[in-house]
Amino acid sequence: MPSWESAAADDLWTKACGKECWLRTTEALEHDIRRASDTSLWQLRTDARTSLIEYARERLARQLAVSGELPDAVESAKHLFDPNALTLGFARRFATYKRPHLLLHDPERLIRLLADPQRPVQLIIAGKAHPADPAGQALIQGWTHFIRRPEARPHVIFLSDYDMHLTEHLVKGVDVWLNTPRRLWEASARAA
Questions:
Q1: Host H or E run for residue 31
Q2: DSSP H helical segments within 78-185, as ranges?
Q3: What 3-state class would DSSP assign to 41?
Protein backbone atom coordinates (compact mmCIF):
# COMPACT_ATOMS: atom_id res chain seq x y z
CA MET A 1 0.00 0.00 0.00
CA PRO A 2 1.39 3.42 -0.86
CA SER A 3 0.55 4.75 2.62
CA TRP A 4 2.98 2.23 4.17
CA GLU A 5 5.55 2.29 1.39
CA SER A 6 8.72 4.31 1.87
CA ALA A 7 9.85 6.83 -0.72
CA ALA A 8 12.82 4.56 -1.48
CA ALA A 9 10.54 1.55 -2.07
CA ASP A 10 8.26 3.63 -4.28
CA ASP A 11 11.28 4.75 -6.31
CA LEU A 12 12.58 1.18 -6.70
CA TRP A 13 9.23 -0.23 -7.79
CA THR A 14 8.44 2.71 -10.06
CA LYS A 15 11.76 2.19 -11.88
CA ALA A 16 11.14 -1.56 -12.20
CA CYS A 17 7.40 -1.62 -12.88
CA GLY A 18 6.13 1.86 -13.72
CA LYS A 19 4.24 4.48 -11.69
CA GLU A 20 0.80 2.83 -11.76
CA CYS A 21 2.16 -0.66 -11.19
CA TRP A 22 0.03 -1.47 -8.15
CA LEU A 23 -3.14 -1.10 -10.17
CA ARG A 24 -2.18 -4.19 -12.20
CA THR A 25 -2.64 -7.80 -11.15
CA THR A 26 0.20 -9.69 -9.51
CA GLU A 27 0.41 -11.96 -12.54
CA ALA A 28 0.85 -8.95 -14.84
CA LEU A 29 3.55 -7.51 -12.57
CA GLU A 30 5.63 -10.67 -12.21
CA HIS A 31 7.98 -9.96 -15.13
CA ASP A 32 8.57 -6.34 -14.10
CA ILE A 33 9.09 -7.24 -10.44
CA ARG A 34 11.80 -9.71 -11.43
CA ARG A 35 13.69 -6.85 -13.14
CA ALA A 36 14.57 -5.35 -9.75
CA SER A 37 18.07 -6.57 -9.01
CA ASP A 38 18.95 -8.57 -5.90
CA THR A 39 21.44 -5.84 -5.05
CA SER A 40 18.84 -3.07 -5.18
CA LEU A 41 16.37 -5.13 -3.15
CA TRP A 42 18.97 -5.92 -0.49
CA GLN A 43 20.04 -2.26 -0.33
CA LEU A 44 16.42 -1.19 0.15
CA ARG A 45 16.04 -3.75 2.96
CA THR A 46 19.32 -2.75 4.63
CA ASP A 47 18.57 0.97 4.45
CA ALA A 48 15.06 0.47 5.88
CA ARG A 49 16.36 -1.64 8.76
CA THR A 50 19.11 0.89 9.52
CA SER A 51 16.57 3.71 9.56
CA LEU A 52 14.35 1.73 11.94
CA ILE A 53 17.25 0.98 14.29
CA GLU A 54 18.22 4.65 14.43
CA TYR A 55 14.61 5.65 15.11
CA ALA A 56 14.16 2.93 17.77
CA ARG A 57 17.36 3.96 19.55
CA GLU A 58 16.28 7.59 19.75
CA ARG A 59 12.74 6.74 20.79
CA LEU A 60 13.96 4.35 23.50
CA ALA A 61 16.47 6.92 24.78
CA ARG A 62 13.67 9.53 25.07
CA GLN A 63 11.39 6.98 26.74
CA LEU A 64 14.06 6.10 29.31
CA ALA A 65 14.88 9.75 29.99
CA VAL A 66 11.21 10.59 30.59
CA SER A 67 10.85 7.63 32.95
CA GLY A 68 13.77 8.88 35.06
CA GLU A 69 16.44 6.35 34.08
CA LEU A 70 20.04 7.20 34.84
CA PRO A 71 21.94 9.11 32.13
CA ASP A 72 24.16 6.07 31.48
CA ALA A 73 21.12 3.95 30.63
CA VAL A 74 19.76 6.66 28.33
CA GLU A 75 23.11 6.95 26.55
CA SER A 76 23.43 3.17 26.28
CA ALA A 77 20.04 3.00 24.54
CA LYS A 78 21.46 5.14 21.74
CA HIS A 79 23.84 2.30 20.84
CA LEU A 80 21.60 -0.75 21.17
CA PHE A 81 21.00 -3.07 18.27
CA ASP A 82 22.96 -3.92 15.15
CA PRO A 83 21.64 -2.59 11.84
CA ASN A 84 22.93 -5.77 10.19
CA ALA A 85 21.13 -8.27 12.45
CA LEU A 86 17.85 -9.94 11.62
CA THR A 87 15.20 -7.70 13.17
CA LEU A 88 11.85 -9.01 14.31
CA GLY A 89 8.92 -6.79 15.17
CA PHE A 90 5.85 -7.29 17.32
CA ALA A 91 3.61 -4.25 17.71
CA ARG A 92 -0.02 -4.13 18.69
CA ARG A 93 -2.41 -3.66 21.56
CA PHE A 94 -1.51 -6.14 24.26
CA ALA A 95 -4.48 -8.43 24.80
CA THR A 96 -4.49 -12.09 25.76
CA TYR A 97 -6.01 -13.25 22.46
CA LYS A 98 -3.09 -11.66 20.57
CA ARG A 99 -0.76 -13.95 22.56
CA PRO A 100 2.38 -11.79 22.83
CA HIS A 101 3.57 -14.10 25.58
CA LEU A 102 4.15 -17.07 23.23
CA LEU A 103 7.78 -16.08 22.66
CA LEU A 104 8.32 -16.11 26.42
CA HIS A 105 7.11 -19.70 26.77
CA ASP A 106 10.76 -20.85 26.93
CA PRO A 107 12.78 -17.75 27.87
CA GLU A 108 16.11 -19.61 27.91
CA ARG A 109 15.56 -20.80 24.34
CA LEU A 110 14.60 -17.28 23.29
CA ILE A 111 17.84 -15.95 24.79
CA ARG A 112 19.84 -18.59 22.90
CA LEU A 113 18.15 -17.63 19.63
CA LEU A 114 18.63 -13.91 20.16
CA ALA A 115 22.23 -14.11 21.35
CA ASP A 116 23.59 -16.55 18.77
CA PRO A 117 26.88 -14.90 17.67
CA GLN A 118 26.73 -16.54 14.22
CA ARG A 119 23.10 -15.56 13.53
CA PRO A 120 22.16 -12.63 15.76
CA VAL A 121 18.52 -11.71 16.09
CA GLN A 122 16.96 -8.67 17.72
CA LEU A 123 13.38 -8.00 18.68
CA ILE A 124 11.49 -4.73 18.85
CA ILE A 125 8.25 -4.94 20.78
CA ALA A 126 5.78 -2.09 20.95
CA GLY A 127 2.33 -1.82 22.31
CA LYS A 128 0.02 -0.87 25.07
CA ALA A 129 -2.78 -2.48 26.98
CA HIS A 130 -6.22 -1.04 27.48
CA PRO A 131 -6.35 0.74 30.88
CA ALA A 132 -9.15 -1.59 31.99
CA ASP A 133 -7.32 -4.77 30.90
CA PRO A 134 -5.18 -6.07 33.78
CA ALA A 135 -4.33 -9.24 31.83
CA GLY A 136 -2.94 -7.14 28.95
CA GLN A 137 -0.98 -5.03 31.43
CA ALA A 138 0.44 -8.23 32.94
CA LEU A 139 1.64 -9.32 29.50
CA ILE A 140 3.59 -6.07 29.17
CA GLN A 141 5.02 -6.57 32.64
CA GLY A 142 6.17 -10.06 31.63
CA TRP A 143 8.08 -8.62 28.68
CA THR A 144 9.47 -5.79 30.79
CA HIS A 145 10.74 -8.29 33.35
CA PHE A 146 12.35 -10.40 30.60
CA ILE A 147 14.02 -7.39 28.96
CA ARG A 148 15.62 -6.40 32.28
CA ARG A 149 17.64 -9.60 32.24
CA PRO A 150 21.25 -8.65 31.38
CA GLU A 151 21.50 -11.33 28.69
CA ALA A 152 18.26 -10.13 27.03
CA ARG A 153 18.85 -6.38 27.21
CA PRO A 154 21.11 -6.09 24.12
CA HIS A 155 18.63 -8.03 21.98
CA VAL A 156 15.11 -6.90 22.95
CA ILE A 157 13.54 -3.50 23.44
CA PHE A 158 10.03 -2.45 24.36
CA LEU A 159 8.78 0.85 22.97
CA SER A 160 5.80 2.24 24.81
CA ASP A 161 3.15 4.66 23.56
CA TYR A 162 2.53 2.59 20.45
CA ASP A 163 1.15 4.83 17.72
CA MET A 164 0.84 5.04 13.94
CA HIS A 165 4.17 6.89 13.56
CA LEU A 166 6.02 4.08 15.33
CA THR A 167 4.06 1.48 13.36
CA GLU A 168 5.07 3.10 10.09
CA HIS A 169 8.76 2.81 11.01
CA LEU A 170 8.34 -0.78 12.15
CA VAL A 171 6.43 -1.92 9.06
CA LYS A 172 9.07 -0.45 6.78
CA GLY A 173 12.08 -1.59 8.79
CA VAL A 174 11.59 -5.01 10.38
CA ASP A 175 12.66 -8.11 8.52
CA VAL A 176 9.97 -10.32 10.06
CA TRP A 177 6.65 -9.17 11.48
CA LEU A 178 5.43 -11.47 14.25
CA ASN A 179 1.71 -12.06 14.48
CA THR A 180 0.45 -14.63 16.96
CA PRO A 181 -3.29 -14.11 17.50
CA ARG A 182 -5.62 -16.89 18.48
CA ARG A 183 -7.17 -18.04 15.20
CA LEU A 184 -10.36 -16.31 14.19
CA TRP A 185 -10.03 -13.65 16.90
CA GLU A 186 -8.33 -11.05 14.76
CA ALA A 187 -9.02 -9.90 11.21
CA SER A 188 -5.48 -10.69 10.04
CA ALA A 189 -5.83 -14.26 11.33
CA ARG A 190 -9.08 -14.93 9.49
CA ALA A 191 -7.41 -15.04 6.10
CA ALA A 192 -4.75 -17.47 7.32
A1: helix 26-34
A2: 107-114, 134-147, 164-173
A3: helix
The CA distance from 1 to 38, in Å, is 22
- Strands of the chain, DSSP E: 86-93, 121-128, 156-159, 176-177
Report which of 46, 37, 129, 44 is spatially closest to residue 92, judged by C-alpha positions: 129
Beta bridge partners of 177: 89
pLDDT tens per residue, range 97-146: 878 888 999 999 999 999 999 999 999 999 889 999 999 999 999 999 99
Rounded Cα distance, 157 and 121, in Å: 12
Sign of the dihedral through C-alpha 51, 160, 129, 97: positive
- What 8-state DSSP symbol labels residue 25? -
Biggest alpha carbon distance in the chain? Answer: 56
* pLDDT tens-digit map of 11-69: 998 888 888 887 888 888 888 888 899 999 999 999 999 999 999 999 999 999 999 99
Q: Is there a contact between 157 and 81 (Cβ–Cβ < 8 Å)?
A: yes
pTM of the model: 0.85
Asked if 175 and 88 touch (Cβ cutoff 8 Å), the reply is yes
